[in-house]
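Appendix B, Record 12. Input sequence as logged:
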Amino acid sequence: MTVGILTEKPSAARHFAAALGGDSGTYNGEPYVIAHARGHLYEFVDPHRMVSDADLAEKYRKWDLVNLPWNPADLSWQLETIKGAGAVASEVKQKLARCDELVVATDVDPTGEGGMIAVNAFLELGLKPKTWSRMYFTDEAPASLQKAFTSRQSMALLVDFDEYKKARYRSQFDLLSMQFTRIATNMAHASGQNTVLRQGRLKSAMTLLVGDQLKAYNDYVKKPFFQNRFRDENEVMYTNPQEPRFDKKEQVSQQYGPSPVTVDSTETKKTAPPRLLDLATLSSMLVGQGVKAKLTLETYQKMYEAQVVSYPRTEDKTITPEQFDELAPHLDQIASVVGVDTALLTHRQPRKSHVKAAGAHGANRPGPKVPASLDDVEQRFGATGRLIYQTLAKNYLAMVAEDYVYEQQKGHVEKYPDFAGLANVPKKPGWKAVFDPDAGDETADGDENESARGLGTNADPFVFEGANKRPEHPSMKWLMKQLEKRDVGTGATRTSTYSDVTSTKAKYPLLVEKGRKLLLAEAGQMSWLLLPGTRIGDLSLTEQVYADMRAIADGTADADECLARVADWVCTDIEQMRTNAASMRQQLGLSEQTVVGRCEGVWQAAPSGPKQVAFKKVFSQHEFTDEEVGKLLAGETISFEATSKAGKNYTAIGKLGVGEFNGRKFVGFQLEVPDRPTSWCGHHFTDDEKGKLEAGQSLEFDDFVSARTGNTFGARVSWDASAKKIVPDFGVDEPPRSWCQHSFTDEEKKKLTDGESVFVTGFTSKKGKNFDASVTWKEEQGKKKIVPAFA
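Logged structural output:
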């Protein structure tokens, strides 16, 4: 009876092979074979491909609001192989097809993602063993994987697997949330903005939080106040909460005098080490050192696969006793790598605050394979790897250092006992000598009561000037704290989504990083103004989704019923965003516009063969009829009456083709380029003129009309046969044919050429005013031009 093991990625397969004795063989008396995925092998097809009816397909393809909301019952939830994953899927099937038992050995994560990766592969590949089972492991160390193999748990039906059910529901919900992107994008287009406003549970939450905090930061108005206080010789301040505050310094009465200080109490206090890091906190610390979140994610994953650090996508904030014991023998070696004095690491018993029996992968920490040095880490994983290991290791080592000890002294001003002071005097640095979580962060609030010398003996009165505190400027560190406080997403998911919305490669990013600070990008600004009061902008939405996932996993809720609620949310958000869009346009100086419709269909004459395309329904103020759309998709040439931007009517002839605008290619109606000269700037060439131009001659005309200004001008033109266009020559080496709507006679032009002045009456300015002037053809600022002189 052969056991088929499916891991999530190649590195995991290698670790299983190392633990069990090879890619295939026998372990604990059982034959086995190992296959691996490459993360997700399958994904949902586009919504319009999930419906069988052609009319419904059009509804799900088009972005128009009339096609929303979607009905989840219409969708087949069909999967397809992710691009480039076909060969991997085929290899999985080839290796596991004859196995009697198939094992889900993908990552164990809180959202069930690993379980869904395996189940999707098994179902799509049509694998049908005698039994199914699941391996649970906290890491990929040999002992953990060997234990997972011998203690694997049987499953009755794949579709009832709890991990699969909750992860599938989340994926279905996230696909349905595409509707919110379509709503917001429609509002942008209706405001004249050609952009895509991406929405989602985490994306929208991040945008809303940053936008609200930026507004609070920018709207801050400093409100100073003045108040009587005391200060001793050690700079300790003494305050009376009942002491009145005044708007001006001169309003504060000076009724107090110097006084001795009385010490009321002295108490020794301790602070435990900071908690272990999650990926979001680690990434926010590194962003402050110039490392992008995406690079942190990518580098950490590579380090995990090499077992240099622990599992990245954990939700745990603590570690288990077994995980603590696993690293205990390596503590001195880890300390040596990151330059921590081992004499500081004297608290080597598990702390109840950091080590708990409950948990899975455990908090982020160093891995069981300790590198030789930080230089070794940098050589293998780059400068980012060095920073990751150094930060992660020192954070972990702080846990086995002693508590930070300080003496808290409380006292009051003897003559005025309502004025009390507090001083925290450091006694033993403990873990602070190992790890400083706020190192280099200028926004971090230190202990304002910390005093090296403690309370003084005498205090003098003074007028204290204070002010209301300005809200903190949003940063990644600030944002991650807000999301964690509201329990929105896991540390790894927050980091991944943050990387996406701040990516400099994204076409329409939502957030922009400026050093440590976070700002709204243009698309983010519009999104923020559209989100208030919406369901997708509700910070509790993820909490609702995760609650549904848990209920679906344990069988107390039905996924279809939970998904059906999204339709009502979409309807609500359409109306709310419509209201918000009016306010958005007012704030951003935009005007409401009619959204240009789009035509969709299969372009039969596409360069690479028939292809599904979408293109603008309006060209040069002409809206294509259904008949014209059909002809264009068939590759036919059509003609129609159009109007130029200058308001001139003309006959447009052309067909569907690929154009380019601002470096981006698009499919749309392309005007037919004539094979011979026909007209240019309002002048229609005669057959004789066409013949001369095609023969290579240059011709001069006075009746060209500017499409931009409507003014008449003269120029010499020629025909570029290769480019199929008229090329003007405005006379760099000789006077122009006309100037300010006056055509020069041959005699006037000769005089100008000879450097003489010519007086002309009846010039017309760009504003339509007539004037007389004496003009000369001469060089000014390196360029020859007509220069007027007025009497």
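The chain has a mean pLDDT of 90.
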